[in-house]
Structures are given as C-alpha cells and as structure tokens.
Amino acid sequence: MEISVSSGHLEIDETLRVTTQEKIGRLSRYLDGMERAEVRFTEEHNPRISEKEVCEVTMVGHGHVVRAKACATERLAALDGVVDKLTRRLERLKGRLLARTHPRHHLSGPGYDSSVLSDGVAPDEQRIVKTKQFAIKPMTPEEASLQMDLLSHSFFLFTNADTGRAAVVYRRNDGDIGLIDAER
Question: Can you spell out the DSSP letters for 79-127?
Fold first, then answer.
C-alpha cells in the first residue's frame, strides 16, 4: 500500500512519519486491496479546543474510500485514535463485502458477531427502510441549491446542466453550500 504523510503548516519529524507508515501499513491485514492511504496532520488554532492535534486518513482501493478523523492533545494519540476508527470501519466493510458475496455463508470464528439477529442484520446496523424515485431534470448548481432550500432538505440530487453528469448540492456545517460532481 502506498502511504503518503503530509501536514498543514506543521513540521513532521522522521519518527512520527515512520510510526505513521507502520501503523497505517498494518491496516492492510484487515482488508486486502487497499491501494493508497493519505495521512494528513493538522492543528486546530481555536484556543477553546483542548485537543488541537488532528489526524485524518483517507484509504482508497477497489472502488472503496474509507476515511477517519481523530483529535487528541498529542499527534501520536490522534494517530492511535484514527487507527482504531479505521480498524472498525475496515472490519465492517469486510463483513459487508463477505455478506454480499456469500449471502448464505455462516460466519464463525474470530470476527463472528453473536449479536446478529436471525435475519442477518445487527440490532444497531443501519439499513434501508424507504426508497424514493423521482425524475431528475438538468439544472445549474444555483437552481439546485434553490430547490434544496425550497424543499428544506440538507442535500439535492440533480443532473448538472453544465457538465451533463450527476451532481449533489448539500448544506455544509458552516451554513454554506457544497457541490459534489461525478467524474467521468
């Protein structure tokens, strides 16, 4: 797995870089096929935030993107937090991939979860309970954000009239509007 370590206006010493590459490299044992991992260290500048050190990791491979972010008072603690989150997410993804490819395969052994109900769904696992279908008409991102506001939704799916591809506008946490546009 290719691992890149970067920072936002911070100095990363060699020991932190080596430790990061070792810990992120070990995550490949949970799910084969992860091709690339991007690790980014940043620091919060708000004096009210006690956990200023932030570590964000994005792993990409076989059409899957797994991302995690953790904050702590020290960079190594933030790295440990993000590794724990990624471990859980990769195990969950592997379980879902196995369940999809082997629907009648009964899991047993180390990774077996006895809390799974007889219908194959864990009690706290999210599942799709409603499906909607609607016509998508081409529009500009500005028109789509207006439609999103009119519907009082936090996102709106549309066909971008400028690119002809599927796109989503969404309300960001800071109140602004974001645009996700599909690649070709």
Answer: HHHHHHHHHHHHHHHHHHHHHHH-TTPPP-STT--TT--TTS--TT---
Beta-sheet pairing, 2-7 with 53-61: unpaired
Q: In sequence order, what DSSP letters do the residues of 134-149 get, joined into one string?
A: ----EE-HHHHHHHHH
Does 11 share its domain with 91?
A: yes
CATH number at residue 80: 3.30.160.100
- How far apart are the C-alpha atoms of 131 and 79, rounded to whole Å? 38
Last residue of a domain, one of 37, 72, 101: 101
User: Residue 76 is part of which domain span?
Assistant: 2-101
Residue-level pLDDT at 12: 87
- Of 96, 87, 56, nearest to 72 by C-alpha is 56
pTM beyond 0.85, yes or no: no
* 11 and 78 co-located in one domain: yes
pLDDT at 15 over 90: yes
CATH code assigned at 157: 3.30.505.50
In angstroms, the CA 18 to CA 84 distance is: 18
